Amino acid sequence: MNQDARKVIARIDNATLAFGDKVVLKNLSFDVAEGAITCVIGLSGAGKSTILRLLDGLLLPSEGHVYVRGEDICHMNEEQLNRVRQKISLSFQFSALLDSLTVGENVALPLREHTKLSEAEIRKTVLDALDSVGLAHTYDNLPNELSGGMLKRAGFARAIVTRPDLVLYDEPTTGLDPIVTNLITDTILKLRQKLHGTAVVISHDLPSIFAMADYIAMLFEGAIIACDTAESIRSSTNPIVQQFLQGSEVGPIPI
Ligand SMILES: Nc1ncnc2c1ncn2[C@@H]1O[C@H](COP(=O)(O)OP(=O)(O)OP(=O)(O)O)[C@@H](O)[C@H]1O
Ligand SMILES: [Mg+2]
User: Could you identify the atom of ligand 1 that is nearest to the CA of residue 202?
Assistant: First the structure.
């Protein structure tokens, strides 16, 4: 990877992972550069969400290692893992707000779980997180009163409310119209600035990827086959990368 000068906040090192007989990741290595937005691209079902679950310690590789800030999280007990997880947030592919709680209560959940803030401090922190995604006015609403784009952004507010160092966004713009997609892309960029943090974003939306990515990694047949600056990936000579970017049916990717 062409980022020698970059500090690595998380690293997947030679990981293999299978579900039953199905090998999803094979000897996969992936570095997450600190302070940057890295987008992961790849075919549906390639294992992109699985990579995020590895980085968050929700899944273990059968071989290989996952390091966060240099610590191997594969051999941690639950308590050690929870300590690392307090600094990592996963914003799920399918926004997972609890229907029975208000938006404010949903966003407050990580604070109640991980901090000892007073009720007044929780309210202030939640309102601040909602404000940063333009949703402070929805504090008392129930999730089913929000549109799809608003639900996504409420999910982001919950993901960043504890001010994590590393935010993992799984398909933040899938299924949204182009205007909301732009809004979400801007929100991710704004949140990165607010947290001075690092993000890994899984996305299929190329304009949105090129608008926000510092680095792009391509997952193909279980491994990261290319990872470089967005501009280098755009002009990559790798035929698999080019076929994917052009959405062409002709090329080395089996359809
Ligand atoms: N818990 C699980 N049990 C069994 N198989 C699983 C599990 N999770 C994922 N898989 C399989 O592993 C493969 C990779 O899944 P993953 O969700 O990581 O792909 P993805 O690249 O995120 O796909 P998409 O673009 O559709 O979201 C898929 O074939 C999926 O069916
Ligand atoms: Mg997925």
Answer: 22
What atom in ligand 1 is closest to the CA of residue 44?
Answer: 25
What are phi and psi for residue 122, nearest 5 degrees? -60, -45
Q: Quick check: CB of 107 below 6 Å from ligand 1?
A: no
* CATH value of 1-87+166-175+195-255 in 3.40.50.300, 3.20.20.70, 3.10.129.10, 3.30.450.40: 3.40.50.300
CA-to-CA dists, residue 178 to 149, 182, 200, angstroms:
11, 6, 21
| CB of 222 sitting under 6 A from ligand 1 | no
179-182: long-range contacts at Cβ-Cβ below 8 A with a sequence spacing of 24 or more?
A: 180/148, 180/149, 181/205, 181/207, 181/208, 182/208, 182/211
Of residues 6 and 106, the one with the higher pLDDT is: 106
pTM: 0.92
How far apart (Å, rounded) are the C-alpha atoms in residues 36 and 42? 20
- Write out pLDDT tens, residues 127-171: 999 998 899 999 999 999 999 889 989 998 999 899 899 999 999
Distance, in Å, from the CA atom of 74 to the CA atom of 61, rounded to the nearest integer, reads 8
Which atom of ligand 1 has the smallest separation from the CA of 93? 27
- Parse the chain into domains and list their residue ranges: 1-87+166-175+195-255, 91-163
Choice from 12, 17, 19, 171 to test ligand 1 binding pocket (greatest atom count within 8 A of CB): 19
